[in-house]
Q: What sequence folds into this?
């Protein structure tokens, strides 16, 4: 039975990923900040629901220790925040910026470090980061949301580094723009449904090979420029 660990699994894309993987017979190791409040996630009855805050590296290490010996095929770094919207040059809040970087850029890499032994036990050995097209330097023509954009650009670069450094160990690292999705972050007017985003990313992942290590994809499989 293949296994997947998902961060930010209590709602939105993370919850839907958990639902879809569970329905296909995967062993789902779901993590979130507040498991006691994750009623929809609990209803899925995944193999595990663990308290993990990607901004709290001690909690990441604690879950990794608890799951010692587990094989993980896919590490799905989904958790992320947007921070305070609308901050521009001249009004930046650097405490907010640091907090967004800690979650969006540092968190997924800390998770990858902590769970590398588990990935090495797995068959697929795939690290996924849900990032954003807003982190693409080549696609940035509008400016705005510098804090969020820079956090995702940093994540993209760090993931590219992981792809190069861990590739010789058989690890494949890929990034996804999930689309503008109807989530708490994306809002109700967003054009992409949560189920479509999750199923799209999973369909692309099913076809990913070692030759795709380090690529940045849209949820529909189109490659995104750096």
A:
């Amino acid at each position: 039975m293949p296994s997947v660990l998902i961060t930010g699994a209590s709602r939105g894309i993370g919850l839907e990923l958990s639902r879809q993987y569970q329905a296909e017979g995967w062993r789902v190791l779901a993590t979130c900040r507040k498991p006691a409040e994750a009623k929809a996630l609990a209803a899925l009855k995944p193999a595990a629901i663990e308290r993990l805050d990607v901004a709290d590296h001690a909690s990441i290490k604690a879950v990794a220790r608890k799951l010692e010996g587990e094989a993980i095929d896919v590490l799905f770094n989904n958790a992320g925040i947007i921070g305070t919207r609308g901050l521009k040059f001249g009004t930046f809040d650097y405490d907010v910026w640091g907090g967004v970087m800690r979650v969006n850029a540092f968190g997924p890499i800390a998770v990858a470090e902590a769970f590398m032994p588990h990935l090495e036990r797995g068959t697929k050995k795939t690290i996924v980061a849900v990032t954003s097209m807003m982190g693409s330097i080549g696609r940035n023509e509008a400016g705005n949301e510098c804090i969020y954009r820079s956090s995702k650009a940093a994540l993209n670069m760090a993931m590219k580094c992981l792809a190069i450094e861990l590739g010789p160990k058989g690890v494949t690292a890929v990034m996804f723009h999930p689309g503008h999705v109807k989530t708490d972050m994306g809002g109700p007017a967003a054009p992409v449904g949560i189920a479509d985003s999750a199923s799209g990313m999973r369909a692309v992942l099913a076809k990913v090979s070692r030759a795709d290590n380090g690529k940045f994809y849209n949820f529909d499989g189109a490659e995104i420029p750096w």
User: Anything to note?
Assistant: The chain is about 40% helix and 15% strand. The CA atoms of residues 57 and 110 lie 7 Å apart. The two ends are 35 Å apart (CA to CA). The helical segments are 12-23, 39-44, 57-66, 94-114, 116-121, 146-166, 194-207.
